[in-house]
Amino acid sequence: MDKRWKILETPVHTAASLHTGMRINKTLCSILAQRGIESFDEAKAFFRPSLQDLHDPFLMKDMQRAVNRIQLAFNRQEKILVFGDYDVDGTTAVAAMYSYLTQLYTQVDYYIPHRYREGYGISKAGIDYALQTGASLIISLDCGIKSVELVAYARQLGIDFIICDHHLPEKELPAAVAILNAKQPGCNYPYKELCGCGVGFKLMQALSRTFELPDDSYLKYIDLVATAIAADIVPITGENRILTWYGLKKVNENPCTGIKALMKLAAVEKEMMVSNLVFIIAPRVNAAGRMDDARKAVQLFIEQDFNKALGFAEMLHNDNAERKEADENITEEALGIIKSNEALSKRKTTVVYQEHWHKGVVGIVASRLIERGFYRPTIVLTKSGDVVAGSARSVAGFNLYEAIHACRDHLLGYGGHFAAAGMTMKPENVDAFSLKFEEVVSKSIEEHLLVPQITIDAEVNFAELTQSFYNILRQMEPFGPGNMRPVFIARKVSDTGYSRILKEKHLRLEVKQGNVQFSGIGFDMAEKLTTLQLCKETDIAFTLDLNEWNGEKNLQLRLIDIRPAEN
Question: Which CATH class name applies to 57-317?
Answer without folding.
Answer: alpha beta
